[in-house]
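2024-03-11 09:14:02 DEBUG pipeline.ingest accepted 1 chain
2024-03-11 09:14:02 DEBUG pipeline.ingest length=532
2024-03-11 09:14:03 DEBUG pipeline.predict start
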Amino acid sequence: MKALTYLLRKLIKNRILALRKRPGLMILYIVIFGFMILSMVYLLFADNIETGVDFSDPRMIYLIIVGFGLMYLVSFANTGLSTGSTLFTMADVGLLFVAPISTKKILLYGLVSSMGKALLASFFILFQVVNLRMHFGFGMKEILALFFIYAVMVFFGQLVAIGIYIFSNGNPQRKKLVKTIIYVSIGILLLYVLWINNREQISFLQAAYRLIEEPWFAYFPVAGWSMMFFQGIAEGILTYLVISLVLFGVFSLLIILLLTAGKADYYEDVLISTEMTFQAVRAAKEGSTGVSVQRKRKVKVREEEDAFLKGNGSITIFYKHLLELKRSSRFVFINGYTIFLCAAVAILGYNLKSVGEGTSYIILGSAVYIQFFYTVMGKLKDELTRPYIYMIPEKSVKKVFFASLTSFLKHGVDGFLMFTTMAVVGLQDPLTCLFFALAYTASGALFVSLTIFYQRVLGGQPNQTVQALLSLFLMFIFLAPPIAVSAVAAFVLPDALQFLVTLPFTVYCVLITGVIFATCGNLIDKAEYSGK
């Protein structure tokens, strides 16, 4: 056990020492840590302040926890049915799997390491401290409870994926049984919500509240257990807290016993999933869409298709991106993400029409917030890991523009379809929805330019977590002024001109995007291809 403790200690130490060679990342981590400290300090002082305001319904947070629980349950179960999950890295495979150390100790090392990563992944909750305090009145114990239960959900989800993989690997009947259980369970929940909605003639949101208030729902795996834990903390119900922890603990123990049961150990079961995870991460860094087995197949060459785009120089990057989009979706810019946005706007708009016009602005703000996370994985970042864009003998700004063009068009199509849906359900008039679509498109362009900005500042390809956090920080800085101006415009403009409320936001985003492209568009001229 001393060797494993030494390995953990050295890994943490080396990660910290490696920051000396990357001062940009060190500054970023310091800023993030500073925000966390400020959030905790605010929370400590806010706990002693009586706000005297009516807080939002805490069931909204319960419902969000349930949503995360269901999402992780389905996603990790699907992972377990395909490649499985893992508690280890390829470095662990090379160092530990061949070492003369007990398999149970190595498993304990993997569990501790995985739980630590899950805790780090839940740090983003601390950035929501102000919102949770102002709108729901949550204090220190509720914030820490959210922090803890999110980490438990991620950790338990990994165990579920491993358990399902061991149980069903190589057995089609068992895989079919697991799929049936999961999808029938989710289907029952959806049918129950629809039944309540139809029987009592209430909104889908109220029907969802009724679902999570049912006593039996608290015992639904992951989603119900997580909600019961947080509800126990928030409402001071000790029984809920104990039952939730017991359920997580008992089922975690059963999966661990499954890992160590029998004559064969778990090495062979997790080795393939570890290798697949490693290859997937490497493929993501190289800009590939996934891991696949090379097979011989016929290739159809269609010279006549999109011939006007082939051309020479930078436009070939745009053409390549179009072909990649065509392979993933028949409708090029319309994919599952677009359908999800339109469906969400239709459901929310239809059920919240009676609340007021402010609902449409909340939907716009939420869509822009989700758009940010979708944009940081854009095409430009992938192109910078390949040598081709550096070899085209044209200006850097032109190459960067064409490498980003599909992202611009994608945001425009998504915005037009999403807010057309809003107009169809009657939440806003068509003219206002048109300006909403323009605002959504402009914010997408700004997020693409922020990708260029942090690539230019950091001078490399930071990992996904770092680039997401840095972009989130930049988003708050850049979007604060136009949001403030648009808020003022909402009070100043007469009713007949309310459709222009988002115009300052749109103009600002377009101008800042142009400035960033003009000042940081020489990104390729100032960088060297590293393949990372």
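2024-03-11 09:14:41 DEBUG pipeline.report The radius of gyration is 25 Å.
2024-03-11 09:14:41 DEBUG pipeline.predict end
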